[in-house]
Amino acid sequence: MSLFDTSPAEAGDARLEVGTARVRLLVAYDGSGFHGFWPNAGVTTVGGTLAAALEQVLGTTIKMTCAGRTDAGVHAWGQVVTFDAPADRLDLDRLQQSVNKLCGPALVVREATEVAPDVDARGSALARTYRYTVLNRPFPDPFLRATTWHVAEPLDRRAMVLACDPLIGAHDFSSFCRRPKVADGQEPASLTRRVLDARWVERDDGLLRFEITANAFCHQMVRSIVGLLVDVGRGRSRAGDVLGIIRARDRRVVPSPAPPEGLCLWSVAYRGEGR
Question: Which one of 71, 84, 120, 231 is the catalytic residue?
C-alpha cells in the first residue's frame, strides 16, 4: 500500500535515504471520473491511480505529496507531486511514458524532473492558482458540460468584477470553507488565507473565467467564492456585501458552492519559477 505524506512537519525534508532521488511530476487530469485526489478505499482517486502506476513502473512502494488535494470532479492542469524513488532504476523519460500509457488520457504526466532533496510539492509551494469557468448562455453546450458551470440567466459582469476586490489580502475565510474535524483537546486549524489576486476574464463566446491566486486554500473555498460571486451577478447579493460576509466568519451566510466541474487547479508557484 502507498504511503501519502500528510504531515506538514515533514514537508521539505532534505534528508534522503542513500541511493534515492526526489522526483517532481507536473500532472494534469480530468476529474470527472475520480472521487478526489486522496486515496479512498473502494473508489477511484487521482492519487491512488497515480501511485499505483508509479509503483508498477518503479517496482517499489512510494510516499507521495501533492500541492493541492482537489475534490471529487475537480480538474487539474498544473498539479504537482513529489516522491522519492530508487536512483539506480530512475529513467524519467520512461517513467513519464509508462505512466501516461497506464493512466492516460484522463490522467497524464506533463513533466518529470529530478529536484533537490528539500523540494516538496506542498511544503515548498508559494502560491496556487485555480480557474473556474462559467458558461453564461441561454442554452448549455454538451461539449463543455464536463468543464463548465452552465448559468442560463444574464449575469451582471461589472458587479461580479467589483465583488472580487474585498477578497484580496489576508482574511479568515471561515464563511467560505468547510471546517476540518478537530480531535478532542486540539485547537481548530486556522482558516486564514492570503489571496494575492482574484479576477474575472470574459470571452465573447459566453465563457467567463474566474482566476484566483492565494498562498493556500481551504476545503471548498474557491467553489464557495464562485457561488457567491455568481449570486452577485444574478442580483441576489451585492458586491458591497462581500466584505461583511468575509467578516461574519459564518458558513451559513454564503450560498451553496458552485459545482465542481467548472474548477481546475491551474498552476502552483515555487521559488525561482514564474506562474
Answer: 71
C-alpha cell at 114: 529530478
Amino acid at 70: T
71 tagged catalytic: yes
Ramachandran assignment for 272, one of left (phi > 0), alpha (psi -120 to 50 degrees), beta (any other): left
The CATH code that applies to domain 3-8+16-115 is: 3.30.70.580
CB neighbour burial string for 102-126, b if at least 16 within 10 angstroms, e if fewer: ebeeebbbeebeeeeeebbbbbbbe
pTM score: 0.91
User: Which conformational region is residue 224 in: left (phi greater than 0), alpha (psi within -120 to 50 degrees), or beta?
Assistant: alpha
Q: Where in the chain are the domains?
A: 3-8+16-115, 126-270
Residue with cell 508509479: 54
CA distance 275 to 265: 12
Helix-then-strand count for the chain, H and E: 5, 11
Q: What is the number of other CB atoms lying within 10 angstroms of the CB of residue 261? A: 21
pLDDT tens, position by position, 91-150 = 999 999 999 999 999 999 999 999 999 999 999 999 999 999 999 999 999 999 999 999
